[in-house]
Amino acid sequence: MESDREFSDLTLSRAECPKCRAVWINGQHTWATGAKGNEEDLAGLVCNTLGNHQCINPKKGVEGGETWEKRLEEAKKFADEHEGDWWNK
Ligand SMILES: [Zn+2]
């Protein structure tokens, strides 16, 4: 029962990256929405671009996560595929 253990853990720790404002709760990166985070995605989206020595993301500098380029590429692909539809509306 992982969640029970977490709730009864009195040494709950919260660390916030002074640079990208990412938050780690008990060592688990958590998105601002409260959803469970992903350090590699965070690195690709934020820390690799904005992070400096202040950044506490252990995955800073790691490639392979989500990146804006990847997102833009997907958005562009989507737009290309659907451009015809938009014009015909
Ligand atoms: Zn950071």
What ligands does this structure carry?
zinc ion
N→C terminal distance: 53 Å
> How many distinct domains?
1
Overall pLDDT confidence:
84
- Beta fraction: 5-15%
Query: What does the overall shape look like?
Result: elongated
- Which stretches of 5+ consecutive residues score pLDDT under 50? none
Structural class: mainly alpha
Series of secondary-structure elements, N-terminal to C-terminal: HEEEHH
Largest sheet: 3 strands, antiparallel
Helix segment tally: 3
DSSP summary, beta strand count: 3
| Strand neighbour order, sheet with most strands | 1-2-3
What is the CA-based Rg, rounded? 18 Å
Fold and architecture overview:
With 89 residues, the protein is mostly helical. It has one domain (14-87). It contains 3 helices and 3 strands; from the N terminus they run H-E-E-E-H-H. The protein has helices at 2-7, 39-50, 68-87; strands spanning 14-16, 23-25, 28-30. Strands 1-2-3 form a 3-stranded antiparallel β-sheet, with no helix packed on it. The N and C termini lie far apart (53 Å). The mean pLDDT is 84. Zinc ion binds next to loops. The site of zinc ion has 9 residues, from loops.
How would the blueprint of this fold be written?
Blueprint (H helix, E strand, L loop, with lengths): L1 H6 L6 E3 L6 E3 L2 E3 L8 H12 L17 H20 L2
Antiparallel strand pairs: 1-2, 2-3
Bound molecules: zinc ion.
